[in-house]
Specification:
Blueprint lengths: L10 H11 L3 E8 L4 E5 L7 H8 L4 H8 L7 E2 L12 H7 L7 E8 L4 E9 L6 H13 L1 H27 L8
Length: 179
Amino acid sequence: IENMSTREIKGEDFSYLSNILQADATSITVIDTCLERQHTWSPEISTKDIPLYQQHWRHDIFFNTYLRKGLINTSQIMESLLDPELISDQIYSENLLPYVRYRSSLILLLGVNQHLYLLFTAHSLNKVFSRSARRLHEKLGHSMQPWVSAFHTKQLASMEQDKALCRCQEHFPLTIRHR
């Protein structure tokens, strides 16, 4: 994980995370609340399911319970936060529940700085995560902080470079003269 600060996330990283956590799926999302940007990686979760979740996340009863209980910076086993039988949110039931096919999920929302967060999840189809898996998930998430900071810095630098290029082209239009 230490080497991740110098490169993008690859499929082998998710294989490692899934294997060590004994999970069927993992996801990593970097969220910048100031710029209102986020980037999600997950080879096991469909590219159609990620935008669907992003559209309806405010109705994720488990995630909202996690936030309401002030559990940021801690890994939690989602189904231990709330009895699924008590869910009455119609949007959750109609839009999210059909895609939440996992028996057990781990979540960690980690504050990296004032505006930057890491959302790290792991999901299991058939078994419930143990407390030791939860502790390992938390340690892995915290170990990703340097990578999240480096990724964010790289993204900001790229944005600034794009802005500078636009300003340069605006003030110094390049024309090619043919001889």
